[in-house]
Amino acid sequence: MDQGAITDVLDGRWAEVRRMIRDQVAAAEFLESHELDTERHRAQVYEQLAELAASGRQRLGFAAEYGGGDDVGGSLVSFEMLGFGDLSLMVKAGVQWGLFGGAVQLLGTARHHERYLRPIMDLELPGCFAMTETGHGSDVANLRTTATYDPASAEFVVDTPHEAARKDYIGNAARDGRMAVVFAQLVTEGESRGVHAFLVPIRDENGNTAPGVRIEDCGRKAGLNGVDNGRLSFAGVRVPRAALLNAYGDVAVDGTYSSSIESDSRRFFTMLGALIRGRVSVAGSAGNATKRALAIAVRYGEARRQFARPGDPDEVVLLDYRAHQRKLLPALAKTYALHFAQEELVGALHDLSNQGDSAEVDEHRQRELESRAAGVKAFATWHATSSIQTAREACGGAGYLAENVLPALKADTDVFTTFEGDNTVLLQLVAKGLLTSYKDHFEELSPLATARFVAEQFVGTVMERTAARKLIDRLVDAGPGNDDDATLLDRGWQVKAFCDREEHLLDGAAARLRRVSDDDADPFEVFNGAQDHLLHAASAHVERILLEAFVAGVDRCADPAAKALLDKVCDLFVLSTIEADRAWFLEHGRLTSARSKAVVATVNELCAELRPHASILVDAFAIPEQFIAAAPIAAGAERGRQDVMRAHDAAVR
Amino acid sequence: MDQGAITDVLDGRWAEVRRMIRDQVAAAEFLESHELDTERHRAQVYEQLAELAASGRQRLGFAAEYGGGDDVGGSLVSFEMLGFGDLSLMVKAGVQWGLFGGAVQLLGTARHHERYLRPIMDLELPGCFAMTETGHGSDVANLRTTATYDPASAEFVVDTPHEAARKDYIGNAARDGRMAVVFAQLVTEGESRGVHAFLVPIRDENGNTAPGVRIEDCGRKAGLNGVDNGRLSFAGVRVPRAALLNAYGDVAVDGTYSSSIESDSRRFFTMLGALIRGRVSVAGSAGNATKRALAIAVRYGEARRQFARPGDPDEVVLLDYRAHQRKLLPALAKTYALHFAQEELVGALHDLSNQGDSAEVDEHRQRELESRAAGVKAFATWHATSSIQTAREACGGAGYLAENVLPALKADTDVFTTFEGDNTVLLQLVAKGLLTSYKDHFEELSPLATARFVAEQFVGTVMERTAARKLIDRLVDAGPGNDDDATLLDRGWQVKAFCDREEHLLDGAAARLRRVSDDDADPFEVFNGAQDHLLHAASAHVERILLEAFVAGVDRCADPAAKALLDKVCDLFVLSTIEADRAWFLEHGRLTSARSKAVVATVNELCAELRPHASILVDAFAIPEQFIAAAPIAAGAERGRQDVMRAHDAAVR
């Protein structure tokens, strides 16, 4: 089996970018730094950031007219590749070019682009993305920072009214940032116009804090200590009128407010929607961190032996144990599914971005993409947290040593489940989007409005195919008419099972929300009572998206042997997913007891069948070897020790 | 509701010890140290260890004739209480007095006790417990270190034959230890007699490494960096004949080996069995670390608000959301269950220890206890890992900051799932014990021997009641004859459901293992093919133990209101446990679809009913306030901010 054929499918549309980065990284010294204290780690990451700036890759996502590469997809893939290395660097780069630079590009206009994009790309102007406040992380439409327009001086006055309105956890703030995109309630002519973004200098070129600005250091964190997170407060900080990033709303010199979008809320969520690249990057790098952890654990599981097999002096390799296969292989299968979904997502986002300002962006498609990015981000980051934990445990005490990399992977990725959107909140939004057919902006609808909308308008689920529409429809049509055990491995049956579950869960959630029309209904109680149902529906939806992306990915594979292997990995993803939720399938008459038990048995069989290919499947990720070899247990140390021990034992016998 | 009534039940038999420690700790400065580098952290923990030695509490577990307290239970509770603080101190104390001191006491004889116990208790002789090797962590009967008796000099020669035989991850080795209990294959008269323990000096009083000994530092770890883990290798290190801890086997001057236990393997597992206190301590401190994390998350969830309720300017408190209740309250219920099971376990171990050397220790009871300790340890530590993770996520970005303690709790407890026995291996041993009715020593039976034993002798499961036997039997007898929704909350039905599942899973596992008798059966394949089934059976067994302990605990509660509340917490434990495994109940006709859905609905209802009592339930743990207040988000900072914000908002409106 040529693992290269699998790598080709995984590398996909931006294979060139991936290969280029692998070559560059192989030459550089981007390694872990678990021996560094906070300040030295921050300094090292800043140096690495400067090297990255010199590579030019950070330009990919920016507009060509300002020296960028006009390649959103390439840019996202490039962030994703940073997920193989020190995740502090990935986050630091994401803050500088994805969030800070992205906000200037997407929320600003020519006056901002001309002045700032080049220095941002070149890291001459390190910046921050100051949205989250101590008191508002999820509900960002209700941020409390204010920017009040003063027509007398044609300036905005930025204020932090109380401690809960501090900008908090802001990357680049504690040490390096010189400017921040500050999200604040815009007040003009005595009226609040919702949240807008402003460019606010926070330090001068010598690193002195700007007047009226207070900067605190968030201090030590569980991980990502190469990123200097801080808190920002503003006391009457004045910035010129032009500091408003005015792509979606503007204030004239006399204080008159204007915007092409009438509703304050809708405008803000349109702005937020423009910024989904951050979530996509987090999902991608979580995926690559997961791959790295699984690669280390699989290498160790292939070398490590424990307990002798009866009649055989050699001890059994860990991966030969069913319990060990059960830990690592379904996680590996899901990692493949997420990779393909990520690849789809990046492609779709790239294509949408390329419609440019001229074409009217397809709003429905934009919202569907926002939803998909949220769902994939939630799944990818939870999967990272659980798989890296599993990988750590699968390596025993060795997995607990910093030198074996897993501790850093675990600690660094941990926050991914709650930053760039708390996963639970994101999944809830996915459900809302489905129930309202993306009629409104992704994060816009309140629980009450959602419930009302559903009560009035929801007529049933429409399955929107995300990938390889025709292929999927064909599979579904060709699926078996009746259920028997053999059909568990029929792709048509599998896709239908996922779709059916999603539809049923959504219809049920809608029925619950409709109770809001009852006379005595408390809208919050109605919504809250349906919350676990909504989250389940959203999960079923995301799992369907993953499956469709996986199916499309397998279909793109030209090599027959590689394709057959990927097909089996897809089967494992499907059946381990059904296994985990098989109570639902049983409760709703979708599986008989016998077939449900057959699902469990088939997962075991698939694990056994895939076990000999575990190494190929992790090697196919084509993680630059230095990132694997950084962990002695994956670099062959374990195999070497086992070989010496076996030779010694044989000599003694 | 008086939370004190709940605290009284939780404090249980060693309430005095718990209260004394709370008072002492309240006065001391045992706080987190996330700003310390490795060396300073190690130094601080050593200082704290010395303070602990001065307190005299470490004497509790030792024999009175050498200055100890003859109070095994009190000693275990005292280790458990250390779980509220810096877990590095807990582990360091556990190494010094539990593992090192415990091995000298339990595996040694008078000549060792007289010479070493006092300096060990007083920390004049810091020591290590050197069992694990790089190549053997789980399969410790096959350690490769050798101790060869040389009759010419009446010495043992200790050797590390190759790198995989290094003693690895050894606490106290890298910095402080002066002596190690080294586990090695005893070779005398040219014959190996299995693993025995030897006292080997590794450093002199000035800290210089002893001749022939090589000490390496394991370096930075994911957590527990206040513990100096290291690696020990031996090259022809000579120790006197008396260095053998000879309670279970001895070598005469001429090299003749003698032991009261014939079989080498059986002898070693008897020695291991004597050392189960380590596992019990790990389970206890994992439980207390979990309580601390949940207390922090509940306090935050009670203060933190996000998203406004329709028609109400105030935002909703996080714990009012069903999804948030679902995260924290079932975890809290299971924490209660584990606490009661731990309390039972400590009591049983204490009583067994007090039978003393004179009485013939009940072997069956000893083995059942070893099994229970393994099961409770596995469950308590996995529960710690998942609950502390949940608590971290429930606190969002604030939970990621080191100052809020959760990162240290997470990182420090992580290794608990794989040290003092890998959890998966431990659960497998629990299943083996059940299938063989504890006929053989806990860790002794090989897969082949187990399968053969089962094939020949297993006749069906016998439910051994662990707690409040009569009460449980009465509940079961009084349980409803037929199933309807109302019975989900009937304790008799619940206990029966747990027992029935355990029996059925064990019978099924036995049936699988019997296939080893088939002519063409490969014993390893038979065993491996049943592995997931065995692990499920073991889990069902441990969950039944937890339930019985919970029931007995509730029964001990004298206060009616407190008892009613605990009853509800027990219901939530039971039904969330059934919910998680309800596919099994459905597949095996134990629940209809309708009843299975009712289980989910009842978990939701119980969460809502317990939500107003969440604070009381965490306050009842009586965690010394300083350990909660160490986290600003739990010390009222969040509530203060929210109050200021609401006052400000009201003024603006």
UniProtKB/TrEMBL annotation, chains A, B:
GO terms for biological process: fatty acid beta-oxidation using acyl-CoA oxidase; lipid homeostasis. Transmembrane segments: none annotated. Residues 495-630 form the Acyl-CoA oxidase C-terminal domain. It comes from Amycolatopsis antarctica. InterPro entries: ACOX_C_alpha1, Acyl-CoA_Oxase/DH_mid-dom, Acyl-CoA_Oxase/DH_mid-dom_sf, Acyl-CoA_oxidase, Acyl-CoA_oxidase_C, AcylCo_DH-like_C, AcylCoA_DH/ox_N, AcylCoA_DH/ox_N_sf. This is acyl-CoA oxidase. Residues 273-435 form the Acyl-CoA oxidase C-alpha1 domain. Coiled coil: none annotated. PANTHER family: ACYL-COENZYME A OXIDASE-LIKE PROTEIN, ELECTRON TRANSPORT OXIDOREDUCTASE. Keywords: FAD, Fatty acid metabolism, Flavoprotein, Lipid metabolism, Oxidoreductase, Peroxisome. Residues 128-236 form the Acyl-CoA oxidase/dehydrogenase middle domain. Belongs to the acyl-CoA oxidase family. It comes from the Bacteria. It is found in: Peroxisome. Residues 19-122 form the Acyl-CoA dehydrogenase/oxidase N-terminal domain. The keyword Lipid metabolism applies. Signal peptide: none annotated. Its main location: other. The lineage of its organism: Bacteria, Bacillati, Actinomycetota, Actinomycetes, Pseudonocardiales. Its EC number is 1.3.3.6. Its cofactor is FAD. One of its GO terms (molecular function) is fatty acid binding.
